[in-house]
Amino acid sequence: MAECNIDDMNPEIYNYVSEKLFDVGALDVFKVPIMMKKDRPAVLFSVLYKKQNEELIEEIIFTETTTLGIRKKVIDRVCLNRKIKIVSTEYGDVSVKFAYYKGKEIKYKAEYEDCKALASKYNIPIKEIYEEVARKIRI
Prior knowledge:
Elements: E1 2-6, H1 13-23, E2 28-36, E3 40-48, H2 54-64, E4 71-72, E5 81-89, E6 92-101, E7 104-110, H3 112-122, H4 126-138
Antiparallel strand pairs: 1-3, 1-4, 2-3, 5-6, 6-7
Helix pairs in contact: 1-2, 3-4
């Protein structure tokens, strides 16, 4: 994990940097509001990545943000097994990520982009798409 405190960057830039980091293999990028010395508001900018992507991650952070330094930590990451399945609804197909613990399905999550596209296409609230996916899974 790489992280840095940033207190002097235009906030509009964070999304651009995050997208670039995801493009080179970042597993997650997150930002947390913090207070630095002299009570200056700042952002704790954190990036999770695999070791093989470290050099590219560092390059982007140094060249695209205002930070002068990066803290690095080695962390363990435990993930559930996942499988993407297509669920057919009355509005169209939705990719759904199912998660398994010890071989047992324990949760699922409809993919936001699929739900958003269908909600826009049919001009209905996105929650209706999520609810339709839930109904189809329970059948």
